[in-house]
Amino acid sequence: MASDEPQPPQYRGVSARSRSVDRSSIRIMFDRAADYDGDLVHLEIGEPDFDTPEHIVQAGAQAAEAGKTDYTANAGLLNLREAIARHGKLGADYNPATDIVVTNGGMEALYLAMLTVVDSGDEVIIPTPAWPSYQAQTKMVGGVPKTVPLSGGSFEIDLDTIEETISDDTSLVVLTRPSNPTGRIYDASKVEQIADLAEEHDAYLLVDEVYNTIVYDDESVAIADTIGKADHLLIVNSCSKRFAMTGWRVGWLAGPEDVISQATKLHENTTACASNVSQHAAIAALEGPKEPVRRMNEKYRERRDRVADRVDSLQGVSCPVPEGSFYAFLDMRDTGLSSEEISERLLLDHGVVTAPGSGFGDAGDGFVRISFANNINRVNEGLDRIEAFLNEVL
C-alpha cells in the first residue's frame, strides 16, 4: 500500500561539469594542516607575509569614508584602467577605455578570458607543471585541457611538443611568466614563437603575469616587451602578489577590444564589478611610491638565495633556481615516494606544509612546491624539517 507521507523532491544532482573539477592540492594541504595539533611551518600557500603598504590602506580607507561604496562601471573605474595602462607593464598601445577590464582578482580575469574565447570542446594547451586552476577553469567552461610537459628538470618550454599538440581545435594556449610552480622565466624568443604558433592556428595566447614584477635577474618581465600588442594576445595580472593585496581582490584582463567587450558583458552578469573601495586602493598602489615593493622584493630575493643555497647542499633533492615568483619546485624523486606521500609525511611527521607537485600536472609527480613568501626564519625552519625527512628516507 502506498504511503500517504509526503515524498521528498527528486533532484538531478550536481552537474557533470562540477564533478569534473578537482580541488587544488594546495588548498587540500592547507585544510589538512588545520587538523594538525602542533607547530606548523606553512610553505604551501603563495600568500605574501607582508601587510599591504600603508599608503594603499589609507587610500582604501579614505575612499570608504568618502562614500565610494557604490557600484562602479562594469569595466572598472576609468582612472584605474588608465593607471593599469601606464604602470601594468602593458605597453603604450592598450586603450584604457576599451582594452582593459578590472576584475575580482586575477582568477576572475582568467575565468572571463576562458569564458569569452573557449567554446565547449575546444582545446586549451597548458605547459605543465602549472597552476592547477588552469585545468580546472578549462573544464568549468567546457573546454578540453591538453597538458604539455615542460623540458626535463629545467622546466623550459618544449616548442616541438607544443607544435605537435596545437591544432585547429585549439582555442587558447596558457603560459605563466614567471612560472608558478617552478619560478622559471620562459625564454622570450620561445614565447614569441608560441605566439606565432597560436596565431597560425587562429588561437589566443593567454599570458598570466601576476608575478612579473617579482623577478631576480631582470627589472621586470612583460609579454608586451616581447611581442607588443597583438590581436590574439590576452594578458592577466593583478595587485595581489605585487603589492601584498591578496584580500583586496583586484585584477585585470587586457586584450583586443572585441574580446574585452564580451568579457565585460560576462563580468556584468557574474560579479558586476570589482569593489569600489579596492579599486581606489589599487590606483594608489599603481600610482604611488615604489619603495615598499622594492623592499618586499629584496626580502624575496634574500629568501630565494637562501632556499637555492640550502637545496644545493642537500642530498636527494634539487630544483632549478627560481628566476621569479616566490616558489621553488623541489625534485624529490630520489625518495621513491609520490608527491602526495612526501607532502603527507612532511606534514604528519615533521610539521611542514607543502604542495604536492602532482597537483600541478602529471609532470610534477615526485616533486613538491614550497613557497618562500614567509619570513626567513620560518623558511629556514621548514628547510631544516625537510632535511630531517630526507635523512629518514634516503
UniProtKB/TrEMBL annotation:
Cited Pfam families: Aminotran_1_2 (PF00155)
Q: Which cofactor does it need?
A: pyridoxal 5'-phosphate
- Any one GO biological process: amino acid metabolic process
InterPro entries, alphabetically? Aminotransferase_I/II_large (IPR004839), AspAT/PAT-like (IPR050596), NHTrfase_class1_PyrdxlP-BS (IPR004838), PyrdxlP-dep_Trfase (IPR015424), PyrdxlP-dep_Trfase_major (IPR015421), PyrdxlP-dep_Trfase_small (IPR015422)
Enzyme Commission (EC) number? 2.6.1.-
Record GO terms (molecular function): pyridoxal phosphate binding; transaminase activity
UniProtKB keywords: Aminotransferase, Pyridoxal phosphate, Transferase
Assembly and binders: Homodimer.
Concerning PANTHER family, the annotation shows: ASPARTATE AMINOTRANSFERASE, ASPARTATE AMINOTRANSFERASE-RELATED
For this entry, the protein name equals Aminotransferase
Organism in which the protein naturally occurs: Natrarchaeobius chitinivorans
